[in-house]
Write a structure and sequence with these properties.
Length: about 280
């Protein structure tokens, strides 16, 4: 049965990855292209300013992958790999959780458990890390701090997932003692407090490019467009909502189909034993 759950998770992730990539290709990638164009134009302005000031600039080498390859093959593969990983993650989490709930609470609907896991996964894997460090398009961020920024993001992501697991275990442990609703509230509150403390201890970054100015303080090239940052973040959130919604709904539907296919077999086994 565990292999069937994993297979269901991978299939759900594949479907979610394809659908979310289609959205990203038509909505998110054009925003990325705007950011890439800004970065190139800004580099030209800085180079011209350096030449005007008598300095020397060093041109960057040509791009290894074209934009067409990046926004199609690169983005597609990346989206599918992430979705498959999340599908496997949900399947493993469901297998572990169902081994507890299915035995202790036989009346529990597996589809409801899958739905709850989808919501939990979205919050832990994407929601909290995004709240701590919102996604930025290309050209936003200092190259000198990329290592620190990556480390901080990975830290808050791992902490969020681990703390969510602890919160779920706490809620399940409290459920027989204080009831399902109250235990869920206690577990959720404990998670929010722990995550809030974690985020407060991590560094903050605000590295949106400012306007390029000459020696006289005059603006020779504008700062990074705020609307591009806003659109990128909105479409990133929407893309993740689509991915997690499709993943969760598909996984729940497959679980329902599996349950229906197993019921007749179970009935035939019982009838055979009685006869």
């Amino acid at each position: 049965m565990e292999k069937k759950f994993i297979g269901a998770g991978l299939l759900s992730g594949l479907i979610a990855g394809i659908i979310s990539f289609v959205f990203a290709r038509f909505y998110l990638e054009p925003v990325v292209s705007k950011a890439v164009d800004y970065e190139a134009e800004r580099s030209e302005a800085e180079e011209a300013l350096a030449h005007a000031g008598g300095g020397h600039s060093h041109g960057e080498g040509g791009e290894v992958f074209t934009r067409a390859m990046q926004e199609n093959l690169g983005a597609g593969v990346g989206n599918l790999v992430f979705a498959l990983c999340m599908g496997a993650f949900v399947a493993v989490a469901f297998t572990v959780l169902w081994s507890h709930l299915g035995n202790r609470y036989p009346a529990t609907d597996a589809r409801a458990v899958a739905g709850a896991l989808g919501a939990i996964g979205f919050v832990a894997v994407f929601g909290v890390p995004f709240f701590a460090y919102p996604a930025n398009p290309p050209a936003v961020g200092d190259d000198d701090t990329i290592g620190e920024r990556t480390g901080a993001f990975l830290t808050v992501t791992i902490a969020s997932v681990v703390l969510m697991i602890v919160a779920v275990v706490l809620a399940l442990w409290l459920r027989p003692r204080i009831g399902g609703l109250v235990s869920a509230v206690v577990g959720g509150a404990a998670y929010v407090i722990a995550v809030g403390i974690t985020i407060a201890l991590l560094p903050t970054f605000s590295e949106v490019p400012e306007p390029v100015r000459n020696d006289a303080g005059q603006i020779v090239f504008s700062g990074f467009p705020a609307d591009v940052v806003a659109d990128f973040r909105v479409y990133t959130i929407t893309n993740q909502v689509i991915l997690w919604t499709v993943l969760t709904v598909t996984f729940a539907l497959i679980l329902g189909a599996m349950a229906r296919s197993e019921s007749p077999a179970t009935s035939r086994t019982v009838d055979a034993a009685q006869s």
